[in-house]
Structures are given as structure tokens and as C-alpha cells.
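Go through this chain for my students:
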Amino acid sequence: MKKSHNNYLLKKRLEVLKYAKIFISEKGLNKNSLENISKRYGLNINEIELLFPEGNIDLIKFTLEQLNKELEEYCKKIDLIRLPVHKRIKKVLLSKISLMNKNKLFYRSIFLNLLIPKKNFSLLNQLYNSVDQIWFIAGDSSTDFNFYTKRLILSGIYSRVMLFFFN
């Protein structure tokens, strides 16, 4: 029972995200985006508020989680294991850019919103999650000091690549 309930909620959140990609690509992300999405696409605003209780913050977090899941699924289809580590990282990073390029204006709005300091939302947290996901997909199994240095170095590279991509 609980699993089907979670699947229903995920389907509803994905439906809102689908419409959000269209709407935010056109109009940008603002404090009334979820309300405007519900009006434009005939969705129940109360349901959206339950699915995303913190509004845009929850929408951004969910968007980035889904992007990371999509990246992981995409990279499973690629034969990364035969490549050296630095080429795996490059391939995963380019794959992520390719996925974001499909909805570039939407992800640009999301990225720009990450740059605005907000309560209960951390750019560094999201940056770490993205970089950690890239290393995970690349097959990193380090547990010592290298674990942190690899992520720190990649976070600098990743943030510069994103700034260049969205500029």
C-alpha cells in the first residue's frame, strides 16, 4: 500500500515538473510560479502545495534530484568502466550538460535561483550532491582523504562549466 502511495505522489510531482519545465522556460521562476502553473495547466493548487510544501525550494530540490537520477540512468547505458577515471568524469559531465541542454532555459532559471541566498536552501549542498553523484557514477570507491579532495577539485571545475554553459 505504501509503495503505491509513493508511486502516485512521484507521478504527480513528475507531472508538475513536466509543466514547470515548459512554463519556467517561457516566464522564468518567480514566487508565484507554482500558482501560475496550476492555473495554466488546470492543476489543483492545494495538491501542488502538498507536493511542494516549501514552494520553489522544493521544486528546485526535486528538479535536481530528478536530473541526477536521469543522469545515472543515462550513464548506465554507456560503457564507462573501460575508460580511465578522468575520461569517465569528463563523459559523465558532458552527459549531464547534454541532458540539461534539452531544457536549457529551464535549468538556467533553476541555476540562477541557486545563486540567490535563501533560507533553508544551500547552493553548496546542491553542488556537493551533483559532484558526489558524478563521482559515484564514475565508479569512485575512495574512502580516505582522496574522497574529499576529489569532490572539492571537481566542484570548482563543475561550477565553472555550469557558469560557462548557462552564459
Q: What stands out?
A: The chain has eight helices and no strands.
